[in-house]
Amino acid sequence: MAEHGHHAHGGQMTPEQQKQMIEQELKIARNLGKIKYKIAVMSGKGGVGKSTVAANIAEAFQKHGYKTGILDADIHGPNIPKMLGVEKGIIGLDENNAMVPVEAESGLEVMSMAFLLDSKDTPIIWRGPQKSGTIKQLIADVSWGNLDVLIIDNPPGTGDEPLTVLQTIPNIDAVVMVTTPNAVSQDDVLKCVKMVEMLNVDHIGLVENMAYYECPNCGEKVKMFGENVGEDFAEEMDITFLGDLPLTPKVADSANLGKSMVSLNSNAEVGKEFMDIAKKIDDEFLNKED
Q: Smallest Cα–Cα separation from 73: which of 187, 206, 163, 145?
């Protein structure tokens, strides 16, 4: 009886389990091997607009001329398909039985746990090992083809799920942290930065979201969550400040329409700021020597 639960309690894997693990690692190498640049978007906590930033950065890279995909690895809140207007999309299978991402109107390739659920109302009620296993499988079983950039919308925090993503995807080129001008959010993102540094990711950038609210009537910028300290905070942590973004109803409205701000109007203020952030990630972090 004791032997039956041996692996579950941290013992050695059976030959079959070892074989499955090797096969999964080979799949990951094959399916991610043709992607030039991989960028994870993270936050120390939920509610800071991480997925909104991830979706708009992905669309910005696509608009800058990079063939781009986005992996929605936030299994508890897989909102990327809704934000990009592809929530009714159906994934296909290639000749190796790998899943083929859904294509958004802009040509952006999208993969999400949301496509695998029976209903958008279905909750994910799993324990840690099951969640980590599912994330690994999601990463292993998607055929991205030849992409220039893959944006990964990581689960928030420093728990099993975000750690699994970072450890499973080989050679991540950069991590973008999303925070707000709020001491609690910054405390949490500091822990995230420390975790990423422990995994030897050198390129870390910071986006300060909801930095101000611009009055639609008079144009006054109101700092609702306190003074903007993103640039100073990034300097303290010795990471790159990528820019700040306003709190605006336009962003929420665009998500409800199934569009990113970038795809609606990349020349408008908010859309342009996302385009500038993507350009700065490109200039600061992506090695063009190869």
A: 163
